[in-house]
Structures are given as structure tokens and as C-alpha cells.
Amino acid sequence: AVGTLIQRDDATSTYDGIVSGGAVSCQRIIGVSQHAIAAGSYGFILRKGIGTILCDGSVSVDTAVCPDSTGGQATDVASVTDAAIAVALANDSGVGTTVAAYIDCKG
Description:
The protein has no helices and eight strands.
């Protein structure tokens, strides 16, 4: 889906086998999908820049975000010392909605 957080598969040392579910650390996120990507297909994953990010219903404007417990959506970071993958540029309007964000993934 648009805005889904994407991580490298645990079973590989390369970027093959990309998955998007389960709780993961910010350091494993390689980017954010910017359009719907069908299973087994290629697509555009934004690593750094302004794009769209899928939210869990708790994201506020001008706050850093990290993966939520599902791994596929973003949530506000717990404190200013936590790692982050993006800064939200707007408030989300509920679970499963997207917002514009400045994305900076290190995975």
C-alpha cells in the first residue's frame, strides 16, 4: 500500500526478499513505498526526501515517527532520544491514513 514502511528480509544479507510486517527497529527500515506494489513486482521505495507515509492514528505534525508494533505503519516516537525514520508534516486523521513526511531511512 502507499506509505508502507519496508524492511530488508531477516533471512538475507541483500535487499532481496523485502517484507513489510512485524515490529522492527528503525535501523532495518530501508524506505517507504510511494505507490501500491503488487506481490512479486517492482516499485518505487523512497529512502530520503518528502513523501507519503502510512500512520497508525497517533502521528502529529512536526513530530518524529518510527515503526509501530505492526512494522508497516508509522507512530510517534516515545521520546526525543528514540531513533526515527521521518518527521511528519501534518496530523494524521486516523488509523491507516497517510500524511506527508520528510523521510530519512538508514536501513
